[in-house]
Amino acid sequence: MKTKLLFALITVFSVSVSAQTLGEFKPKETKFGLGKAKDATKIYISNFAINYQIYNEKQKFKQGGRMLGGGYRGDAKAEASVGLTGLSEADVQQITDKLYNDFLSQIKAKGLQVVSADEAGKTEVYEEYVKMQGGKASLAQFPGTMTTAPTYYEWFVKKLKQDGKTKSGGFLGNASFLYPKLSKALGDAIIADVNIYVMFVEDKTAFQGGGASIKIKTNLRIADTEAIVMSDNDSFIRLKGQNSITAINSTVNFAYGKMGLGATTSYSGQLSKPLEINDVIEDTKVTSFARGGADFVGTSNLYVTYFTPEDRSSETAKIIKVDNKKYIEGVYAGAKKFLDFHTEAFFSALK
User: Fold this and answer.
1) Helical segments of 156-281, H only
2) Is 80 exceeded by the pLDDT of residue 328?
3) Please, which residues have CB within 8 angstroms of residue 160's CB and are 6 or more apart in sequence?
4) Are 180 and 257 in contact (CB under 8 A)?
5) Half-sphere exposure of 7 (CA within 13 A, CB side)
6) What is d(CA 268, CA 29) in angstroms, rounded to the nearest whole number?
7) pTM here?
8) Residue closest to 216 by CA, chosen among 295, 170, 281, 168
């Protein structure tokens, strides 16, 4: 019934991508024993999440001290932030729902039965787990992102923290370790796990350069294996210039059956390079630089010389106005290309 409601919710979604172009698409696959899943008749979607980066801030601290040649230099701190405006929660939810609807269509075309969350919740695997309901974005899961799951979609997490962040469960927090056991418990159902990151800030070269220097540039893309680098304001012990590093990786994964501790069949679809989404967000560079003041002379009282260099800081902020229609069309096109390719690559091996 819930699946039918979702199909009814998104009966009209016309997309024209003439204003946006996608960069080079380079998928990456890791697969094992695909032919062994050809008799599968059921599929359970254990996770379907699309994560949209909307804000990022970074900081860098350079401690001062004695300079080569004499004198002292003060401390320096740089901060830079960039955010998107013009996007609503409904905008990104629309993209997520449409992608999920497309995914269900591919499953239906394959003739597979979708196992409900209610049925999965009866298994031993999900004992004491928390059932989640999609359709509302979370700002807690990853720094500076809106994380969305499809409207009417339900799934399970090990724990829901007070701040809204979820823990997936599984060995070392990796839910894929649960999938072989879950597949067996559901009568050898295929287990699907989709997690896509839509990023707009480049982190790789942000901290190059001397002193307290930050250089951020924009690049809207479906992320490959990378990390979100963000000012760390939540740690119990804060250090000057401290940033958190959160590993991310866009994936379309499938698992089937149980063989020992592993799965009989596994497929992991990723990207070997980011899939760029052009002509949606203006090319922007945000820089922040600070250098502590120098005191070469100091003040002497004949017994000791005091140096009082000036501490300096720099803050730069940039807001980027987004055309939500272009964003919806471009991001949907990029995420669909990634999702469709890997879903078809897995399903085609089951014929």
Assistant:
1) 179-185
2) yes
3) 130, 132, 166, 167
4) yes
5) 8
6) 6
7) 0.86
8) 281
Structure tokens of 175? Answer: 């839910």
Residue 20 CB-density burial (10 A; 0-12 exposed, 13-18 middle, 19+ buried): buried
pLDDT at 118: 96
Helix or strand (DSSP H, E) at 2: helix 2-9
CB 115 within 8 A of CB 43: yes
Where does 113-193 have alpha helices with state H? 117-120, 179-185
CA distance 72 to 63: 11
Q: How far apart are CA 251 and CA 261, in angstroms?
A: 22
pLDDT tens for 225-246 read: 999 998 887 665 566 767 888 9
CA-wise closest residue to 182 among 121, 229, 231: 121
Residues contacting 11, CB < 8 A, separation 6+: none
- Enumerate the β-bridge partners of residue 321: 85
CA dihedral 62, 68, 69, 74 (to 10 degrees): 10
pLDDT tens, position by position, 259-311: 887 899 999 999 999 999 999 998 888 777 676 777 776 777 777 777 777 77
330 closest CA partner among 12, 16, 11, 10: 16
pLDDT digits (tens, 9 = 90+) for 55-70: 988 888 887 777 787 8
Ranges 37-51, 77-91, 205-219, most confident: 37-51
Question: How many Cβ atoms sit within 10 Å of the Cβ of residue 314?
Answer: 19
Left if phi > 0, otherwise alpha if psi is -120 to 50, otherwise beta: which for 20?
beta
d(CA 157, CA 167): 6
